Amino acid sequence: GRHRAMRSWGVLGGAAAALAAGIYVLWGPITGRKRRRRGLVPGLLNLGNTCFMNSLLQGLSSCPSFIRWLEEFTAQYRTEQEKPQEHQYLSVTLLQLLRALSCQEVTEDDVLDASCLLEVLRMNRWQISSFEEQDAHELFHVLTSSLEDERDRQPRVTHLFDVHSLEQPEITQKQISCRTRGSLPTVSNHWKSQHPFHGRLTSNMVCKHCEHQSPVRFDTFDSLSLSIPAAVWGRPMTLDHCLHHFISSESVKDVVCDNCTKIQAEGILNGQSIENQRTTFVKQLKLGKLPQCLCIHLQRLSWSNQGTPLKRHEHVQFNEFLVMDIYKYRVPGPKSSQEQLSRKNSEEITPGIKDGRAGKPSDAEQPAGTKPLFMNGASSTSSSSSFLMSPGTFPLAAFPECRAPLYLYRLMAVVVHHGDMHSGHFVTFRRAPGARGSQWLWISDESVRRASLHEVLAASAYLLFYERVHGRAQ
């Protein structure tokens, strides 16, 4: 009987140990979940290869402008009476998670569960498995496109006595709905507004033969996907090199030029028919509209000669502050002959924008007052990088208002991928919410610790999240 009792206690002890182990795996140590250390943010439970989602959420939660936009975007839902359906909206689910991760929600748990985001994405027809390797950049596109779809699905509620709104041509009968009870809320403009990651690219085509410029074409983007150009021996690869390579001009052959065809037709008598004149065009990209929140994706996927995918591990140097003025498209206007000559000389000494080759940005391209200081990357001849890397330093304070850059961005988060193309792990460096200066955190799923700015800038970045800051000049 004594032996039987001891065996029963052993079985119960084993079951209790198994239960405790299961609780630990699912929720982490019970004592650790009671209170989060001061100055840190909650981690996220890994639901099975969901580090790609956890790292992206931590990066998005470090962008205050995106959270404010979600708050305005979801304001319409708070006026509706169907509260139980809030969980169906991606914007509401995402806002709750980002507020908790930025310590705006009252929670003391050090580990949160983001499975609700996977559920709402599945409801939006996105089949994302939590047990397969996924890509954080791809999920970023899924979130932004789903938010745009949600915005486009919202009906406009128009008062039947609002004659001005009813006379607008864009309002159709399908967009008009009427309420018989209660107050009629005004239609807010934020339903039409784009999310803060939304930007526009300009594509400029110029004929090499007649120098005729085609109409500028605009394309939208929510992230800049930059390829890493071939490195030059002895020179570090910088973010500026990637950006210049992105906007570098390229030749497009065998393009029909309407202007050359017209000129050719004018020189032929008797109305003889002529063929369309095909020439070579020079194409160049610029940034027509810079977003409030800038997401930069560094393409680390490459292919071997045998067609197998490879990962590029080289370090791309970036800084805490990023100036985008020289990449901004400006509408061409009348220029004096001296300005044209200066522009021609600057183009001749700038290898980074000719023939599709990446090179070091020249001083001629830098905006006034930003030549040495605002170089977006390490430079062997300038001490600007050390100035920009110094914690808590805001460079606008050192310059007159008239020389401040218009498009200055501050680094908010860095997503890093460790491993190869077939397996790996995502981690995030992000700013501590509400911290003055440059208090950074390193986050890997449930693990959260403090980090230095030097450690952040030394990381092999995959995604960079910048947010635009405004100087006194604006």
Automatic annotation (TrEMBL):
Signal peptide: none annotated. One of its GO terms (molecular function) is cysteine-type deubiquitinase activity. Pfam families: UCH. The chain crosses the membrane at residues 6-27. Keywords: Hydrolase, Membrane, Protease, Thiol protease, Transmembrane, Transmembrane helix, Ubl conjugation pathway. Residues 333-375 are annotated as: Disordered. Residues 42-469 form the USP domain. One of its GO terms (biological process) is proteolysis. GO terms for cellular component: cytosol; nucleus. Its EC number is 3.4.19.12. PANTHER family: UBIQUITIN CARBOXYL-TERMINAL HYDROLASE, UBIQUITIN CARBOXYL-TERMINAL HYDROLASE 30. This is Ubiquitin carboxyl-terminal hydrolase. It comes from Erpornis zantholeuca. The lineage of its organism: Eukaryota, Metazoa, Chordata, Craniata, Vertebrata.
